[in-house]
Amino acid sequence: MTxxxxxxxxxxxxxxxxxxxxxxxxxxxxxxxxxxxVRSIRPFAMEQKVPAYVLDExxxxxxxxxxxxxxxxxxMIDALQMMVNDYQDKVILVCTHPxxxxxxxEYFDSTFGYEDYQQxxxxxxxxxxxxxxxxxxxxxxxILCV
Length: 146
Description:
single chain; 5 helices; alpha/beta; 6 strands
């Protein structure tokens, strides 16, 4: 089974999520390309001796540039499929933004809607845990939301 943690990343929540993930086995880390995400996650990756990769597909939604939520969801699902295929039976930490995270959750759970997106955006710390067997999602759990 492959476990994927999706984490909303902001400089304000670094202490909370760092404390949450310390001691947990993380095999690989993927980050959105925006500078604040990379800067805040790099020290954690180095401390934990975890390989970290920056993926453009994890970037924030470019809704002002005519990127639709469907477009965001497509690129996120493509990236997720690559991750779960390349890192089967591993634990993956994905650091990105609330709209891309929500688009993935909505793909697997049609009850995730507008209000859920709004809650994810408002929260300082937001972590979703998803478990996969191959590319099949077995479960989704909100595990840290402050």
